[in-house]
Amino acid sequence: MRRKLPGDAPASVAASGPSEADLAQLSTAIAAGEDLGPFVRRAFACGRPEPLLASLRAAARDREAEIEELCRAHFHDFIRAVDDLRSLLADADLLKGSLSASHSALLSSAAPLLASLESFLAARSLAGNLSSALASSRRCVRLLALANRANEHLQAGNHSLYLALRAVDAIDRDLASGPEPLPLPTLRRMLLCLVPAVRAHAEREISREFSDWMVSIRAASRHLGQVAIGRSAAARQRQEELRSKHRPLEECITLDDDGVGDLDDFAAAAATADVADGEAAASFDLTPLYRAMHIHQTLELGERFKKYYLENRKLQLTSDFDVIAATPFLESHQVFFSQIAGFFIVEDRVFRTGGGLTSRADVDALWDAAVGKMVSVMEDNFSRMQTANHLLLITDYAALLSATMRRYGYPVGMLLDVLARHRDKYHDLLLADCRRQVVEALAADKFDQMLMRKEYEYSMNVVAFGIQSSDITPAFPYVAPFSCTVPDICRIVRSFIEDSVSFMAHGGGGDTYAAVKKYLGRILSEVVDASIQKLVDSGGGLSVSQAMQVAANMSVMERACEFFTRHAAQLCGVPLRAVEHGRRDFPLRKSRDAAEALLLRLLHSKVDEFMRQSDGVSWMADDAPAGGNEYANEVIIYLETLTSTAQQILPLPVLRRVLVAVLAHISERIVGLFLSDSVKRFNANAVTGIDTDLKMLEAFGESMSSLFVDSDQESAANEMKAALVEVRQLVNLLLSNSPENFLNPVIREKSYNKLDYKKVAAISEKFRDSSESYFSTFGTRGARQNPKKKSLDTLIKRLREAS
Questions:
Q1: Neighbour-count burial of 328, counting CB atoms closer than 10 A to its CB (0-12 exposed, 13-18 middle, 19+ buried)
Q2: Burial readout 382-404 (b: 16 or more C-beta within 10 A, e: otherwise)
Q3: How far is residue 400 from each of residues 142, 233, 590, measured CA to CA in Å?
Q4: CA dihedral over 229, 230, 235, 238, signed as positive or negative
Q5: In 10 A of CB 232, how many CB atoms?
Q6: Count of CB atoms situated within 10 Å of the CB of 459
C-alpha cells in the first residue's frame, strides 16, 4: 500500500489551490529537508504555482536570516584565525632566511669534502677494475689447474678416469654457471673443446676396458663354475661320510632319543660348503665392471650402459650354449654346466653388489632361458643314450649343478624334474647292463665249489655280502658251499644298488628308499631270477653235481637278498629296525624252485638208468634173492654217495626235500615195474625180492633221517617212509595171506589207502603163486585150493566187477 504523501490531494482540492494546511505541510517538509517534488508537481498541476513560489521565497528569506545570524556569531573567531595566519607567514620568512644562511655555510665547508669524495670514487673504481682482473685471473688459473689435473688423471690410467671426469665437470660447471663469460676467448674456446673431448676419450677407454673384462670374465666363469661344483661335490661327500659315521649311532637311538646332537656335524658341513661358495664368489674381480658403470653414470649414460651390459651378457650366454655343438654331450657336459654355473654366480654377485646394474627380473629371465636350454639339451641327449653309466655321469653332474645354483637362490625344479622323468630309463639301462653281466657270470661258471686260499678272498667274496654261515673265520684254504656265480651276482646287485641310490639321492626325487627298494625288486626278479631260471630251464648240459650246486647257490642267495635290503636301507639312511619289520618273501623263489626241479629231474633220470637194470630181475624165480636185486643196491650206493656230497653244500631242508622226492620217484618206478608190459607174470619170490629192496631203501631213509637232528629227526623219518608208502602197501598186499581184505573199506583206509583200484587189479592179475605153473593144473586137479590163491582170485573178480 503506497504511503500518502503530503502533495497528494483530491481533485476537488487541487482545483481550488493550496490550502493553509498544504502550506503548513510544505513548511514542515522544507524544515525536515524532504523532497519538494510532489508539492511542485501539484502546484503546476493545479495551474497556480504562485502560492508555492511565494512560500518558497519566504522559506529562502528565513534561511538567509539564519545564515546571517550564524555569520555574526562566528565573525570574531574568523578574524582571530586570520591574525594567526599572518603571524605564521612572518615566522616562515624568518626560517627561510636562516635556512639560506645555513646553506651558504654548508656549501663553503663541504667543498673539500666533495673533492675528497671524487678522489675516493675514482680510487674505488680503479680497485673494482683491479679486483675484477684478479678474479678473472684466478678463474683462469683455476680452470687451467683443473685442465692440468684432468690431463694428469688421464695419463694415470683408467683407474683415474673418474677423477679426470670430475675435473672436467668442474670446468664445465664454471663455464656454464659463471657470473660473466671468460675474458679470454681463446681459453674459453679451448676449454669448450676440451670438455667433450675428455668425456669421449673416457667413454672410449672405459668401453675398451669393459670389453676386455667381458672376455676375461667368460673364461673365469668356467673355472668359477668348476670350482663351485667341485666344492658342492666335496660338501656332498663330507655329508655322506658323516651320515655313514652316524649310521651305527642311528641304530642305537631309542624311541625317546631325538638325536639332535648328531645333526651338528651336518650343520657344520653345510656351513663349510656355504663359506667355500662365498670364497669362490670372491675369487673373481668385478672392479672393471663397477668402474665402467660409475663412469657411465658420471657421463649420464647409466641407462644406456645397463642395456649394453644386459645385451652383451645375453649374447655371451647364447654363445655358452654352443659349447656342446662341436663335441659330444658326454664329453662336453661338464664344461657346459660349469660355464652356465659360473655365468650365474657372476650375475648373482653383480645383482647383489652392482648398485642396480641388473634387476631381479633381468637375472630371472636369463636363468629361465638357461634352464630351458639345459632342459632341452638333456631331454634330447637322454633320449638317445643307451648306456647307464653315461646317463648317471651326466645326471650326477646336473644334480651337483642344481645343488650349487640352489645355494645362490636360483630355482632348479625344472632341472630336477628332467632327472626324475628319466629315472625309469636310467634303471632300465642299468638293468640291461646288469642282465648282460649276470648272463656272462652264469655262462662262465662251471658250478664247482669256490676255493678261497687267503683271508682277504674270504672277506671280499663272503663277509662283504653277509653270506657266511658262521661268524667264525674258517681255516684256509676254504671250500665254500657255493660257486663263483654267487659273489659275482652279489657284486653286480650291490653295484646296482649303489648306482640307484646315487641317482635317486642326487637327482631322482621322491622317497629314495622306496624307489631303490622297487628297483632292487626288479633286478632280483627280472634279471637274477629270470637269468637263473632261463639257465635252469634250458638245462645247458648241467650234470647232477652242477644242478646240485645251482640249488645250493640259491640257498646262499637267500641270505644275500637280506644283505641287499639292509645295504639299500643303510645307503638311504633308513634304520635297520624299520627294514626288519618290512621284510618280504624270497624274490628268487621261482629260480630256486626251478633249480630244485632240475636237480630232481636229473636225479630221476639217473634213478631211471639204474631202474632199467631191473630187466635182470627174475619175476618167476624159484627162490627169492637173498641180498635184494642188483638195481636196488646200485641205487642205494648212488644215493649214499650223492648224500655225502650234498650234505656239504645243500641246506638240510633242500636235501630233505630232494631225498623225499627221489624216494617217492623210486616208489613210483617200482610200482611201474609191476605194471610194465614187459612183466607178464610174477610170483611170490619176486615180490619177496622187491620187499627186500624196499627194506633196504627204508633202512637208507631211516639212516638219512639222522642228518636232520636240528629240524626234526622223527618228522624226517616219517617223510622218508611216506615217500615209499605206495610200494610198501602194494608189497604188503601181495604178501598178505588175505588179499581180499583190500575190499574192506576199514582195512583199506588203514593199510592200503595209497593204492589205486586199477593198479591193484592189473598187478593182481599178473601175480601167480610159486606152486602154480602152466601145466600144474593137470597134477593138482582135485587137490585142495590154496586159501591165498582163492582170496586173490576173489579180489581180482571183485575188482573187475567194480571197474
A1: exposed
A2: beebeebebbbebbbbbbbbbbb
A3: 61, 6, 41
A4: positive
A5: 24
A6: 13
Tell me which of 425 and 186 has the higher pLDDT. 425
Helix/strand/coil (H, E, C) string of 530-588? HHHHHHHHHCCCCCHHHHHHHHHHHHHHHHHHHHHHHHHHHHHCCCHHHHHHCCCCCCC
* pLDDT above 80 for 460: yes
Angle between helices 725-735 and 757-766 (to 10 degrees): 40
What's the CA gap between 303 and 296, in Å, rounded? 9
Q: What's the half-sphere exposure (Cβ side, CA atoms, 13 Å) at 17?
A: 6
Q: Of the given ranges (22-36, 276-290, 429-443, 711-725), which has the lowest mean pLDDT?
A: 276-290
Contacts of 803 (CB under 8 A, 6+ apart): 757, 758, 761
Q: How far apart are CA 145 and CA 147, in angstroms?
A: 5
CA–CA separation, 595 and 592 (whole Å) = 5
Cβ–Cβ under 8 Å, residues 33 and 2: no
Q: Which three cell numbers stand for residue 725?
A: 608208502
Which value, in Å, is the radius of gyration of the alpha carbons in the chain?
Answer: 66
Question: In angstroms, rounded to a whole number, what is the distance separating the alpha carbons of residues 388 and 555?
Answer: 30
User: 235-256 burial string, b = 16+ CB within 10 Å, else e?
Assistant: bbebeeebbeebbeebeeeeee
Is residue 498 within 8 Å of residue 519, measured between CB atoms? no
Q: How far apart are CA 614 and CA 630, in angstroms?
A: 8
Q: Residue 583: its pLDDT value, please?
A: 54
Residues 588 and 555: their CA atoms lie apart, in Å, by 10
Evaluate if residue 731 carries a pLDDT over 60. yes
To the question of pTM greater than 0.90 for the whole model, the response is no
Q: In 3D, which of 667, 671, 668, 688 has the Cα closest to residue 679?
A: 671
Q: What is the pLDDT of residues 48-80, one digit of tens each?
A: 788 778 888 888 888 888 888 888 777 777 788
Beta bridge partners of 682: 767
Least confident residue range of 219-233, 269-283, 711-725, 738-752: 269-283
504's CB contacts (< 8 A; 6+ apart) are: 423, 510, 512, 515, 516, 572
Q: How far apart are CA 738 and CA 277, in angstroms?
A: 99
Kindly give, in sequence order, each residue whose CB lies less than 8 Å from that of residue 231, ignoring residues fewer than 6 positions away: 273, 276, 277, 280
Specify whether the backbone of 573 is left (phi greater than 0), alpha (psi in -120 to 50) or beta: left
Alpha-carbon distance of 384 to 387, in angstroms, equals 9
Answer yes or no: are the C-beta atoms of 467 and 490 closer than 8 Å.
yes
Identify which of 641, 656, 662, 661 has the alpha carbon closest to the alpha carbon of residue 710: 656
Lowest mean pLDDT among 284-288, 339-343, 487-491, 767-771: 767-771
Give the CA distances from residue 542 to residues 480, 539, 555, 649, in Å, rounded to whole numbers and listed in that order: 20, 6, 18, 17
- All three cell numbers of 677: 608190459
CA distance 239 to 777: 99
Q: Is residue 477 reached through a cis peptide bond, with omega within 30 degrees of 0 on the bond before it?
A: yes
d(CA 52, CA 686): 198
- Asked whether 662 and 596 are in contact (CB, 8 A), the reply is no
Q: What is the pLDDT of residue 8?
A: 46
d(CA 34, CA 396) in angstroms, rounded, equals 121
Task: Report d(CA 733, CA 755) in Å as an integer.
Answer: 10
Sequence-ordered list of residues with C-beta below 8 angstroms from that of 747, at least 6 positions apart, any chain: 741
The grid cell for 390 is 653315461
Compute the distance between CA of residue 760 and CA of residue 802 in angstroms, rounded to an integer: 12
